[in-house]
Amino acid sequence: MPEQKFYLTTPIYYVNARPHIGHAYSTIAVDVIARRHRLLGDDTFFLTGTDEHGQKVERSAAAAGIPPLQFADEVSASFRALWDRMGITYDDYIRTTEPRHISAVQKLFQLLLDRDKIYLSSYTGQYSIGEEMFVDGPPGTIGPDGKPTETVTEENYFFRLSEYQLPLIDLIESDDPEKRLLIQPESSRNEVLSFLRGNVAEATERGEVLEVSASGKAYVPGALKDLSISRTSFKWGIPVPGNEKHVIYVWLDALANYMTAIGYGSDDPALQEKFNRYWPADLHLVGKEITRFHCVYWPAFLLAAEIPTPKSVVANGWLLFDDSKMSKSKGNVVRTETILDAFGTEVYKKQFPDSTKKEQDLFGADVLRYFLLREIPFGADGSFSFDAMITRYNADLANGYGNLVSRTLGLIVQNFSSGEIGGSPSGIARVPPLTKGNDTLAFIYSIDLRAHADTLVGLYQTENEYAFGSKLQRISDFIQKVDVFMTEQKPWKLATYLKTSSATTYPDAARQKEFEDNLRNDIVRLECILYTAAQSIRIITALLYPVLPFSTARVWAQLGLGDIEEAALNGELKNLEWGGLKPGTKLGPLAPIFPRADKGLAQIMIDMENPNAPKPEQPTPSRFVDETTTHTAPVPTDPTHPGAPPRTSGFADVAPGTTVAGSLAISTERTGTPSHSEAPASGIFANSAAHSNIPDTPQIAIDDFVKIDLRVAQIVVAERIPKADKLLRLEVDLGYEKRQILSGIAEWYAPEELIGKKIVVIANLAPRKMRGLESHGMLLAASHGEDGKPVLATFGEEIALGSRLK
């Protein structure tokens, strides 16, 4: 058994309604952490489950016309089925209606009662049904769930919470990792400590005597009140032992699951050993709205029972939809099943018609996992939208990671015998087979990427475990570096040259030898370029495995490395040294990894969420003018073809048309000679024909045109502007100076995919202020229709920065 254990839990989800992606968010985060600790060799135990007691469940069941247990059975089953469908790797699934839990909770209650930590009294107060808690305030006070509280008078058992004000403060503020309850993020820690300390400022103004904790910080003694831990106003709960007209407070009941699931309260020696092995929990991951319960009430119960407290509580933020928290009561939830079905069927199944439903579901789960962890800084609130998810998927996975894998491995299969990494190139005539291990050239071609890979691995292993977004950002940056490496080296051109030139002969023997020596060096160069890219892909794939378990398994197999799950269990994924991919490794069968998702997928998901909503009017197909004929734009060429140059844009290739200054922007002007009826006397590019679909634009003289200074620039910085949904702040390098330009393209372009692009700017446009920032210049882009996506004017060939367009 490994020396290091790691026990982690999700919140147990309340069964008053079925799951949505807010629940999936927390569960995905815990699954990623669990997978990572397993591959590190830790004895990892991952717990999830459902919280099934309380007045809210009792009322929901009554509204459904069924008994509470039947209601809980159905909803709990929907949670478990969803986690299984998503491939969540939990080790146990606890339900608070299980006998093992009920008996153990009664033992914990009795223990606290025997220790005189619980007493019987009565209480009148404002009770929030939605949050199952009393709230300070007069009748009608609005509770945390946004609904009016109810006045409740009850005989209750009370827990002596007030005794633990200072012990809890010291527990949280301790500098000793072995004696501390670590709360993350810092905002949640501060919120809990503020609650425990009381209102120090008001107490000071009133002249009250304050006390000081071990860290030297003041607190208001008595600010923490005793806590009611039983109810008599409803029956759906665990009865208090010896006084069954009371049921145990749902939060004492629910929180105890973290111990009851691993054997607390059991008479079975094996379960007792299990509890001693795994407790205390290393991580409780919870939603931020229940931080107080986990960081005040739960550790206080444990201190009173003389049971070790958890090591850490980490709170994730809320998912926002339409600028408000996603919640069942507001009706603004998004079902995880919608995303699994849409991406599984509309994206994956279309590429792989023979794929199983399980494969389609796991692919959809990967897309959701990546988006939530990449897009939302963990611990903060984050917005969710179908459009944003599709854009992120296409940019980072389809055009980034997937494109790099398909292109690199495709080139290896096309150009090396038997599809071996670092093997001898095929189709090269009369040149002796390449000897393995030309260390000099291999070092030259890998040194830069190897240094970047070592830096990436080091940061990944030392950074905060919950910094999912920044880690994925670094991986994305490294993918772009490998793309740049491939673009600079152009192995597809080198391979073509080798195949077409290898049969060349010279009558002069010396010249022939020189030619063959150079050819052999070019063969080594091609081998080293592709070997370097494949090594990079291995490291990228190992790092991405916890987040994208299904997709990385397919890449791992294509690399010829076998089963990634076995590699994780064997410790192979924690060995990320350069060179782990051995020369001569034979690639597995190749196939696309991330088929592109069409923007129309967003509407499909909206329709799935709102099946009875009226359908929006369908737009007509985009059209362009080529020569003298109007065509509907064809499907773009497959960007994963091995012979195509790397592409880092997050958007589909535009349809072929007249390029503007070597860019991919489409000209909508006619380039052929118009018919006699279309040609006005003043010039062939003006259009005044009533029946023409070409926009009527004013003519300008050549003197007007030359006043516009169009220059080649490169984007070096791109970032979003707070509270400006449409604007990006760009810094562009014109060769002779750098400029700041604000551009309204945030809806279509993610900042990271713009870095390094060479674009066309109007350099002599007068500066102007926008959102308090100066914008000096304008980008050129083409689009179709009033709401069409802008496509930046870029360059297909190398061009010096600052070059003027003429």
CATH architecture group name of the domain at 384-574? Orthogonal Bundle
Q: What share of the residues lie within helices?
A: 25-40%
Instruction: Determine the N-to-C terminus distance.
Output: 72 Å
Number of helices: 22
Major β-sheet profile: 7 strands, parallel
Low-pLDDT runs: 427-440, 618-695
Please give a structural write-up.
Helices cover 39% and strands 17% of the residues. Helix 5 (165-173) runs antiparallel to helix 6 (186-197) and helix 18 runs antiparallel to helix 19. It contains 22 helices and 30 strands. By secondary structure, it is an alpha/beta fold. Among the domains are: 384-574, Isoleucyl-tRNA Synthetase, Domain 1 (Orthogonal Bundle); 621-646 and 653-806, Nucleic acid-binding proteins (OB fold (Dihydrolipoamide Acetyltransferase, E2P), Beta Barrel), CATH 2.40.50.140. The chain is globular. One of its GO terms (biological process) is methionyl-tRNA aminoacylation.
Task: Describe the secondary structure blueprint for this structure.
Elements (H helix, E strand, L loop, with lengths): L4 E5 L3 E2 L6 H19 L3 E9 L3 H10 L3 H18 L6 E4 L3 H16 L3 E11 L4 E3 L14 E10 L5 H9 L8 E3 L1 H12 L2 H6 L5 E2 L5 E2 L7 E2 L1 E2 L7 E2 L2 E6 L1 H6 L1 H4 L8 H10 L4 E5 L3 H15 L6 E5 L2 E3 L2 E2 L10 H16 L5 H19 L6 E2 L2 H30 L23 H24 L5 H22 L1 H11 L7 H36 L4 H10 L5 H6 L31 H9 L13 E4 L2 E4 L69 H5 L3 E12 L2 E10 L4 E6 L14 E5 L5 E3 L2 E3 L2 E2 L1 E2 L8 E2 L14
Parallel strand pairs: 1-3, 1-15, 2-3, 3-4, 8-16, 15-16, 17-19
Antiparallel strand pairs: 5-6, 5-7, 7-11, 9-10, 12-14, 13-14, 17-18, 20-21, 22-23, 22-25, 23-24, 25-28, 26-27, 29-30
Helix pairs in contact: 2-3, 5-6, 6-11, 12-13, 12-21, 14-16, 14-18, 15-16, 15-18, 16-18, 17-18, 18-19
